[in-house]
Amino acid sequence: MARPTSATIHIDALRHNLARVRALAPRSKIMAVVKADGYGHGLERVTRALAGADAFGVATIADAERIRAAGLSNRIVLLSGMDDPFDLPLLHGLDVDTVVHHDSQLAILEADRERTPVRAWLKIDTGMHRLGFPPTRAAELRARLLALPQVSEVVLMTHLASSDEFGGTQTPAQIAAFDAVDGVPGEACSLSNSAAVLGWPGAHRDWVRAGGALYGLSVVAGKTGADFGLRPAMTLATRLIAINRVAAGEPIGYSATWVCPEDMDIGVAAIGYGDGYPRSAPAGTPVIVRCAHGGDVRVPIVGRVSMDLMTLDLRGAAHARVGDPVVLWGPQLPAETIAAAAGTIAYELTCSITRRVRFFEA
Ligand SMILES: *Cc1c(COP(=O)(O)O)cnc(C)c1O
After folding, report:
1. Closest protein CA for atom 6 of ligand 1
2. Where are the domains of the chain?
3. Are 8 and 235 in contact (CB under 8 A)?
4. If you classify domain 234-361 with CATH, what class do you get?
5. Residue 124 CA: distances (Å) to CA of 57, 141, 174, 191
6. What is the set of active-site residues?
7. Which residues, judged by CB distance below 6 Å to any ligand atom, belong to the binding site of ligand 1?
8. pLDDT score, position 184
9. Whether the predicted pLDDT of 188 surpasses 70
10. Which atom of ligand 1 is nearest to the CA of 217?
């Protein structure tokens, strides 16, 4: 039998989430952020499902090539911009916009004797201090870009560091820093990631850049995507491949970190960190066993997650049988719950699924 570990991508959930983002930011265009293989959901399937988006945001030119090869003609934005003069003809050939966040990139544009046509997204650092120019340079840089005959359009953008804290002070400070830039009236601008779409309507403006929300995921502490009307786009599942009776006092798994408090059934599910399930998920992290006779039962992991396998406390699932499906996350069990237990965010979980997991669409 083939290994039963699978990721099922819910195409209608992706479409629903795009419609939800549109409803939340009705006056904005939507850039669907699809970096890291569509947050691990599969670039081609995600971009086809989200073909109604106004643009796609990618991290690599190779991803733009894949989107074009899939036959999609949506606008595409290279979020970290180019880093080599040879990128310019590639961007032009694929009709991809570039972010300009550093003097080295402006130098490439200004040195281009071919005058390769390009659209630019000028990135201003309003306080995250990762990528971008200081706001004091925005006017000068915009003027230099627009002085280049090959640059047909400049969109002003910034990235928010703490938009997941709805009551926080950093986001208003970043919005104020952005608004202090002496903008050209009517000039397009873009500030919002998913959390700002959900919680900061004042930051929506012309373009929102939504990633996680489109996959039904939330990074807001204590909230799941469903709390915002989003639907998880991935179900990660496997099957029980063994059920073993283990005596009271016997240890389970590597380093004997968990000891049976009584005689009990231990289930073994065919998934582990070699599939992308986080090894950092501690004992007590829930999974759902879909008992063929007895319905869905939430049971805890016991012992360490290993490379190919995990062990489950089946005391609450008397009807469980070898072969029953086990759901690791999905609509019935939010990835946010697993991420919180493992000390990370749901984005990292979906991005970490490995190549041996088989993907399906539903
Ligand atoms: C990844 C990314 C986004 C999307 O962030 P989400 O939290 O997934 O919505 C938006 N803008 C930029 C520049 C990004 O790199």
Report:
1. 211
2. 11-222, 234-361
3. yes
4. mainly beta
5. 17, 10, 10, 10
6. 35, 254
7. 33, 35, 79, 159, 193-195, 209-213
8. 75
9. yes
10. 8
